[in-house]
Automatic annotation (TrEMBL), chain B:
<feature type="domain" description="Putative zinc-finger">
    <location>
        <begin position="4"/>
        <end position="32"/>
    </location>
</feature>
<feature type="region of interest" description="Disordered">
    <location>
        <begin position="46"/>
        <end position="65"/>
    </location>
</feature>
<dbReference type="Pfam" id="PF13490">
    <property type="entry name" value="zf-HC2"/>
</dbReference>
<dbReference type="InterPro" id="IPR027383">
    <property type="entry name" value="Znf_put"/>
</dbReference>
<keyword id="KW-0804">Transcription</keyword>
<protein>
    <submittedName>
        <fullName>Zf-HC2 domain-containing protein</fullName>
    </submittedName>
</protein>
<keyword id="KW-0805">Transcription regulation</keyword>
<dbReference type="InterPro" id="IPR041916">
    <property type="entry name" value="Anti_sigma_zinc_sf"/>
</dbReference>
């Protein structure tokens, strides 16, 4: 039985058998890889990661036309949907007082800690190689969980300029990391 | 619209722009191809969060040399 169905508490009571089948197939096909990916961005918080995967699968089911896409595009889209859900969750969490210590301490002591530190160094080096304009928009948006308009206000530049610098900055970063054999 | 693909991949578009871009993505093959190319890059940037200081007050990474 697909685990997502049990968790949704009858949300799909009215859905027909075909819809249930499709969501089960989605979960089977993408659930595992997605969970492994999402866990990395929830700091190994498994419960949070499982919630994110469920929400992602539900959104995919609601946008079933996109499931006609090539598998590589479906995967890219699912990763992006999941990331957005994680970021929204992180923004909500940081808006209220911390209930527990952030998990970063544990992250540094897990067995792959040195491997992680190494790839973090490679990424940090690549980021430093970018122009100041490109680097600062990446830092002021993604790395601080800020939206385009929030970053635009802080940087004192129009939102369109933030988007455009992000585009060229991210492409440049990808080229740098690909040259170093890190990016796919 | 095309250059919003980077902000979309990073999940930092404001809500209205995010929804508009999702609709754009349905028909834009160029943005679809760029989404595939960029989709895993944010995971690499996440390495910096994990490697950063444990204090919430500090920036995600230090750019000082």
């Amino acid at each position: 039985m697909c685990p997502v169905l049990g968790h949704l508490d009858g949300r799909f009571e009215s859905a027909d058998a075909e819809a249930e089948h499709r969501i089960a197939v989605l979960y089977q096909e993408f659930g595992g890889p997605l969970l492994r990916h999402v866990r990395k961005s929830t700091g190994n918080d498994l419960q949070w990661a499982e919630d994110v995967v469920q929400e992602t699968i539900v959104r995919a089911w609601r946008n079933s036309a996109r499931l006609q896409w090539e598998p590589s595009l479906i995967w890219a889209w699912l990763l992006t949907v999941a990331r957005r859900i994680v970021i929204d969750g992180r923004r909500r969490r940081s808006a209220r007082p911390q209930e527990v210590e952030p998990p970063e301490v544990d992250m540094m002591s897990v067995p792959d800690g040195s491997e992680r530190a190494l790839s973090a160094m490679v990424v940090a080096d690549a980021l430093r190689s970018l122009s100041e304009e490109h680097r600062e928009v990446i830092e002021q948006t993604y790395l601080r969980d800020r939206t385009i308009s929030e970053a635009a206000e802080i940087l004192g530049i129009p939102p369109g300029t933030v988007k455009s610098r992000l585009y060229y900055g991210i492409r440049a970063l990808r080229e740098l990391l690909r040259d170093k054999g890190v990016a796919g | 619209m095309h250059d919003e693909v980077a902000a979309y991949v990073l999940g930092v578009l404001d809500e209205d722009d995010h929804e508009a871009f999702e609709r754009h993505l349905d028909t834009c093959e160029r943005c679809q191809a760029e989404l595939v190319a960029l989709a895993e890059l944010p995971d690499q940037l996440d390495e910096l969060r994990h490697a950063s200081s444990t204090s919430d007050d500090d920036p995600p990474m230090s750019m000082s040399h």
